[in-house]
Amino acid sequence: MRKPVIIAVAGGSASGKTTVVKEILDKLDLKDVEIIKHDDYYLDQTNLSMDDRIKINYDHPSSLDNDLLVSHIDGLLKGHAIDCPTYNFVTNNRSAETRRIEPKKVIILEGILILTDSRIRELSDIKLYVELDDDTRFIRRLQRDIAERGRTVESVIDQYLNTVKPMHHKHVKPTKRFADVIIPNDYKHSVAVDIIVSKIKMILGEDK
Ligand SMILES: Nc1ncnc2c1ncn2[C@@H]1O[C@H](COP(=O)(O)OP(=O)(O)O)[C@@H](O)[C@H]1O
Ligand SMILES: O=c1ccn([C@@H]2O[C@H](COP(=O)(O)O)[C@@H](O)[C@H]2O)c(=O)[nH]1
Known about the structure:
Rossmann fold; Uridine_kinase; cytidine kinase activity; uridine kinase activity; P-loop_NTPase
């Protein structure tokens, strides 16, 4: 099998990374694609109390185990299966279960800080950045974190002001310059998605 095509998708929290990845997936053969969420590589925090876990800065690159992710990408590129960690946002901790991932033709890496690590950038064939203004991202995050991640209005606001917003401007947004394609998520972007899918098919040699 040809070495997998690696696609890295960055962008601020709630900018629409997951949504854009779904749009790309809709145009590819699902059996050929695997998604790896950078969130699943947050460091294990079993030794910390819940009070201490909520004080962690999850928007700083040091909160993620990139050594493990890089070794997993290397493994997939060599044709080996990996056991990907899984993460629980409600407990702010890694889950006990892992997820077996077999090498596929296309591997999509997705996360706010995925383009901060030069090793991951170098392993990626296509780098994307999903862009959306801060206000809209905050509103979408507030709705999502209350509905899906067990948060209160106050906790989302506190976290946003203390870490999410400053870290976005310090660590996430500057990685936009590494992107091959910037996708605006406040406007139609179906042409951008079509171009990305064509490029993937071109690399896979399926564009004839
Ligand atoms: N273009 C859009 N219009 C309206 N809502 C959107 C759009 N894109 C994403 N959303 C919603 O915003 C929230 C965050 O999007 P998501 O794709 O999960 O962001 P991310 O993966 O970057 O955190 C989700 O509830 C999603 O359904
Ligand atoms: O335990 C955790 C781990 C992460 N977060 C927040 O998640 C977002 C990243 O996820 P998106 O889906 O891209 O929004 C990041 O901004 C962290 O603040 C958390 O709250 N708790």
